[in-house]
Each structure stands twice: as structure tokens, then as C-alpha cells.
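Bug report (template v2)

What were you trying to do?
Predict the complex of my protein with fe (iii) ion.

What happened?
Run completed; filing so the output is reviewed.

Input:
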Amino acid sequence: MIKDRVNQLLQERQRGFSLPGAFYVDDDMFEADLEAVFATDWLFAGSVAEIRGPGDYITMEIGRDSIVILRDREGEVRAFFNTCRHRGSRLCLHETGRANRIVCPYHQWVYELDGSLINARQMPEGFDRASHGLHPVHVEVICGLIYVCLAETPPSLEKFRKTVTPYIAPHQPDRTKVAFFSTIIEEANWKLVIDNNRECYHCAGNHPALLVTLVEFALPDDPAANATFKGLMDRSTARWDGLGLPHAPADGGTEFRCIRLPFNDDCLSFTMDGKPACNKLLADFTEPDLGSVRMFRVPNNWNHFLSDHILHFRVLPLSANRTAVKTTWLVHEDAVEGVDYDLKRLTEVWTETNDEDRILAENNHKGVRSRAYQPGPLAPSEFMLNNFADWYCTKMADWAGGPGGRRIAAE
Ligand code: FES
Ligand code: FE
């Protein structure tokens, strides 16, 4: 039934328009999203900088599932369903933490960091511990970014890995530490949160702090760009070419996007005055004017890699109208708070921007719920929403078994 409904809505979808409203607000479409998207694709989980030592863990909620991602004793990154093999209790109850072993809070079954069950008190002689280890989840680490996949057989990440590595690796994310993270809950569907991130049409009217430094254009040859931007782009790319840093838009199709873009003239970082947020630059950079590598990957992740810090954004669906957005600020592992950086200065632009975006997404969700909503036309600067919708509709059609996605993918 639900698949029939998905196919019907896919038939109604018109490219160049926002999606039929049910995709954003209906509970059964949310269930379909969990199956078609979040149970099949790679999801951004976090950074290796969040789990530097053995037993360090982070958790992530994906609909009804919780996943724990940890560093084991051999230094490997592993992921497991955060569900006890006894009677199913949640195991790790915090967003982040450290555990020598994983001990279930209910009846204290004990798991090693490799997921094996090592103690199940009061269970009878002959109880087979070996077949009650934690259910593993696939993990891939790309330039310090951790991705997990709930599917039994995950899709390949190789094109993504090969393409983005030259852009990201020079910033050496594995030599960073977490300066701060925040998680906000937005009362909006996860796709509206992503849509809002995929365009800067809304920036001028809503993001005064961000626009001190951020250029509003998404492409070097943006048709809307003016001569000032073109001059800035030419000077910046000449400098980056000299440093051997890639900047041209990568070919990620509808799956991912990677590009290096400059900040506004005389601006080096996401701060209120455009000056660096951290005096100790990443890697061994001596040039602070590196703009930012903007990397987006469906379905739940965008990032900025600057000369002085890295920003990760992780979007996770909690229900049809609730979405968790986690932002993580990384600085050089040797940077010292209060000496090399001030936490407020480092975080204030995106803290403010996130809150502005939260309000926009929440208002958007409320409006879509109205009986008056109908899919509206996208502006040329919203081309990335079309890419996202194409990708999403293909995933949904593949899952529902209808013709829509294949047709769109072939266009
Ligand atoms: Fe975990 Fe009982 S549910 S030990
Ligand atoms: Fe925004």
C-alpha cells in the first residue's frame, strides 16, 4: 500500500518544483524514507576526532534505530546497533562518551569494544555468548569522516572517496580535535532542512552574520555572479593553483558535491569580522586564504573545510516533523582554547545561522502542512534542490518498484 502511494506521488512530481506535500509531512512517507533512504545508503556519522581514544563513542538516532560508533582497542572505528541482545534495551544512552566496555544499563550484560558479549550474569550453563554479540553496522572512514550504512550489502563509496580526497586531505582532518559541538532539534521534515541548505536564495534576507564572509554564489561561473565575484574567483584560484589545492567543481552527479570557493574579499574564515577564528592553522598551512571546501553528500551531510577550522553538519530524521542537526567545530589538535582560539568567536556565526535556518525550516514545514500548499516553482539558483529531489525520487522509485526514478535518472 505504502509503495503504491509512493509511486502515485512520484507520478505527481514535476521537475523544477518543490515536492508533493505528502513527501514532507505524512507519517507513512516518513516510514518510506527510513526504508528507502536511511536503511539503504551511507550516512554521515561524525569525525574520527570525536572518538580519538579506545572506548570513545558517539551515538546517532536514525528514526527508531540508534547506532553507536566507537574506537576499539586496536584503534579501528566500529559501529553497532545500540540495542542489547538480551531484551533489547538501549546500551549507550548519551550522545558522546567513553566506555571501557559496553555495559547494558538494564541487567548488565557486558560487551567488548569489538561487539562480542563477554559476560551475561545469571544466564545458565551452556548459554551461547558467541551468538549474542552486538549487531554490526558497516563503517567507512574517508579523510577522517565516518560514514555508516545499515544495509546488509552497502553501495560502493569508491567514486566519492576518490573524488573528494584530493580536496579534503590537505586539511588533515585526522589531526584535529573537537572544539565544540551542538545538536538542535528542528520541527521540520529532514528534506526541508536539506532543501534549505541547498540554496542561498534565502541568505540575503535571513543571514546577516553569515553574509559578512560567505559568497552567495555556488559556482565559479554562476550566471547570477557579478564582476566583483569573478575577479575574486580569478585571484583565488590562481593562488590555490600555486599551492596545488583543487578547487573546480567535482563531478558528483546527484550524490555529492565538492568545490572550493573563496570568502568575500579580505575574509578568511566564518567570523563576525572575517579574520581567522583560530590562529593555529590546520595541517601545516601557512596560507590562511584558502576559502572553504564545501562538500555535500546525500542524504544527511554538508561540511566546510577552511584553513583554520572544519565544520561538519549531520542531519538525522527523528519523525516526519522533527530533525536533529548536529554541528561539529574542529580545530588543529594542538590548538589551545583561550590561546589560539576563543570558543565564542569560533562558533558564533554558525550558531546564529543554524538558528536562523531552524526558523526558516520550521516555518516551511508549517506552511507545507496547509491544504493550500501546492508544489511551487524553483528559481535557477535553487538548482541543487532539483538535484536532491532527483536523487530522492530515484531512491524512492527504486524502493517502491515504480518507473519514476529510473526515468528521472536516465534523463
Ligand atoms: Fe540488556 Fe537485559 S536488556 S541486559
Ligand atoms: Fe541558511
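What did the reviewer find?
The chain is about 30% helix and 25% strand. The domain at 172-368 is CATH 3.90.380.10 (Naphthalene 1,2-dioxygenase Alpha Subunit; Chain A, domain 1).
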